[in-house]
Design a protein that fits this description.
With about 400 residues, this protein is α+β, with helices and mostly antiparallel strands. It contains 7 helices and 18 strands. The protein has 3 domains: about 50 residues, no CATH class; about 140 residues, no CATH class; about 140 residues, OB fold (Dihydrolipoamide Acetyltransferase, E2P), CATH 2.40.50. Strand 8 and strand 9 form a beta hairpin. The radius of gyration is 54 Å and the shape is elongated.
Length: about 400
């Protein structure tokens, strides 16, 4: 290694240096780039200073590397005031959490089994509740059971604030129903809404006459409403099958004729075709209008053919004339102010057992013409306890 002079600043530098440490002038590249071939007739010492300057190659400035620092990384001195604010904020968050825990934790719902006292229809029951609770009282889905070997109370369903709420099912051995004329206590088993019988259920009780009965069917508003059936034990009363309204049996004309047929001394039914006719034309048995009846009448009715095959008849009315009234009675029944019952004979002493909805200005011994619907062919017992064959009929229009 030898020393040479920097072509730019004249300082002595090593001939191995690529850049002058004093002025940054490139040495090797400059020497390579400024060598001029001799054959051109030009020597390096013949290059003028201005040409020398023009041949200079500037080196880029070398800047030491400094990593970039973001704003968030820059440390800002925290003042005493800011420290107070930070600690105060943390304290407020902690206090808010404690308050929230105090308010929320007791209100959380959870499942449990516990002893619970329930008041229902002014009767207190202390039993066992299993289900969802909130604030230590039933809320949500749950089951309450009480049984003291005399009375049973079980409810399974929805609760709200410790009370029966929403839909559920109830068994209550001393349930009280408010009828239109009386309050009656009995046993209820069935669906409820907000603790009140609603939907399908059954109610068993004993009436004022001492007859036990059971109603099964639709409930609404805590009593019989809709289609249902009330059956009496030991044939102590006529079973009621059909429409109930506010606890009372309020049959349609078709349901009424079926009910009247369940008598103690006379028991007839309604044949299938007759039942269909009643369903389609119930109004003619309450309006009693003559117009339009001929179009619904079988003009070729033959009694002997009917008594032989009663199931083949009933899709039309029959028109009978010169029937003699042997017995007639008018009475109020259920939701109907007047029902007229008649036993009439034709000229051949064939018997017709007739029920008519409404009153008639007709008396025993009178002769009538009638548009009737044959219901059944059956026997009944007369006053002498003899069996009498008769055609049971529903009266649509009757006149002298």
């Amino acid at each position: 290694m030898s020393l040479i002079s920097c072509p730019e600043c004249g300082k002595e530098i090593s001939d191995q240096s690529s850049v002058c440490p004093s002025c940054g002038y490139p040495i090797k590249s400059k020497q390579a780039n400024t060598q001029v071939p001799e054959e051109n007739g030009i020597h390096e010492d013949e290059i003028t200073e201005s040409e020398h300057t023009a041949l200079k190659v500037s080196d880029p400035e070398i800047v030491p590397y400094e990593p970039e620092v973001t704003e968030s990384q820059k440390k800002t001195p925290v003042s005493k005031k800011n420290k107070v604010i930070v600690f105060a904020s943390i304290g407020l968050v902690i206090i808010a959490g404690i308050i929230a825990a105090i308010l929320i934790i007791p209100n959380r719902t959870h499942d449990t089994t516990m002893s619970y006292k329930l008041t229902y229809q002014d009767v207190d029951y202390t039993g066992t509740y299993t289900g969802t609770v909130q604030k230590k009282i039933p809320n949500g889905e749950g089951t309450f059971s009480f049984d003291d070997n005399n009375n049973v109370f079980t409810y399974n369903g929805e609760w709200s604030d410790g009370k029966l709420s929403g839909t559920g099912s109830l068994t209550d051995s001393q349930f009280l129903i408010h009828f239109s004329d009386i309050d009656r206590q009995g046993s209820y088993v069935g669906a409820t809404t907000d603790g009140i019988p609603n939907g399908t259920g059954s109610f068993s009780a004993t009436n004022d006459a001492g007859s036990k009965y059971c109603y099964t069917g639709a409930f609404q508003g805590g009593t019989f409403n809709g289609q249902g059936e009330r059956k009496f034990e030991n044939s102590s009363g006529k079973n009621e099958i059909g429409t109930f309204t506010a606890g009372d049996f309020t049959p349609s004309p078709k349901e009424l004729f079926a009910y009247l047929g369940r008598g103690k001394n006379s028991n007839f039914g309604i044949r299938s075709m007759s039942a269909d006719f009643l369903s389609a034309h119930e109004d003619i048995f309450t309006s009693h209008l003559l117009d339009g009846l001929d179009a619904l009448t079988d003009t070729g009715f033959w009694r002997e053919a009917y008594t032989k095959s009663p199931d083949k008849y009933g899709d039309k009315l029959i028109k009978l004339t010169s029937l003699k009234i042997d017995q007639i009675q008018e009475f109020k029944e259920l939701n109907y102010d007047a029902i007229t019952f008649m036993i009439a004979n034709d000229s051949d002493y064939n018997v017709y057992y007739i029920y008519y909805i409404g009153s008639l200005d007709i008396y025993e011994g009178d002769y009538i013409s009638a548009y009737l619907l044959p219901l059944d062919y059956f026997t009944y017992k007369n006053v002498n306890e003899n069996d009498i064959w008769a055609i049971a009929c529903a009266g649509a229009y009757i006149t002298k």
